[in-house]
Amino acid sequence: DIQITQSPSSLSASVGDRVTITCRTSQSVSSYLIWYQQKPGKAPKLLIYGASTLHSGVPSRFSGSGSGTDFTLTISTLQPEDFATYYCQQTYSDFHNFGQGTKVEIK
Amino acid sequence: QMQLVQSGSEVKKPGSSVKVSCKASGGTFGSYAITWVRQAPGQGLEWMGRTIPVLGLANYAQKFQGRVTITADKSTSTAYMELSSLRSEDTALYFCAREESVYYYYLDVWGTGTMVTVSS
After folding, report:
1. Residue B15 has what pLDDT?
2. Which helix (H) or strand (E) holds B6?
3. Which of A13, B20, B24, B96 fits as disulfide partner to B77, beta carbons 3.0 to 4.6 Å?
């Protein structure tokens, strides 16, 4: 199985900050890396697929980069509605596992 | 726009089974896969498995092999996830999701979620 290490597990930030979350996979997943946002009690929402393609309707302050084993989700200017938990997922292998999640909290 | 409507919450005894449904409204499964993901209270997302209804195929996370069965009825655009030999650790919110696979595989439409509580 492909292991995913997502970091940090949590972070505190202020509105307007630039936030970066990383995912590292134990072997190459090419660009089969997906990012989701989840708020408490709600289903996750798709943000980015193919490591860097913004899903329709997602604000441009979100961006993704990377390929192979190292990936980054960046929020350029944090907005109040961005406080949530973020997950990466690899869909390269038959087992589409998720990272452990990163909770973005208000400083 | 397709929506996925799941069945209501369940309370089950340890050792029993649960079957959760996921019905597509405003569209059909077409060639999409349907994936099941669960989330225990306060925990992260856990991928359980998926089915491709048009092909009648399914694959499962090794952790759930032998305990989970994911099926779909194309005629009613309804998918099902059945989990057997329930234990307290299976208490979780269970989601179905549509998997888009034009080029990359990703979950773009999610169900409403079904809470399953396992308690004696």
Report:
1. 97
2. strand B3-6
3. B24
Average pLDDT over residues A32-52: 97
Chain B contact for A80 (CB, 8 A cutoff)? no
Task: Chunk chain B into consecutive blocks of 10 residues (it has 120) and report each block's average pLDDT, rounded to whole numbers.
Answer: 95 98 89 95 97 92 95 93 98 97 91 97
For A33-42, A65-74, B54-63, which range has the lowest pLDDT when averaged over its residues? B54-63
Q: Any idea what DSSP says for residue A55?
A: P
Q: Each residue of A68-103: b (16+ CB within 10 Å) or e? A: ebebbbebeebeeebebbbbbbbbbeebbbbbbbbe
Of A43, A46, A98, the CB nearest to B47: A98
Q: What amino acid occupies position A107?
A: K
CA-CA distance, B45 to B64, in Å (whole number)?
A: 15
Query: Which of A44, A91, A99 shows the shortest C-beta gap to B105?
Result: A91
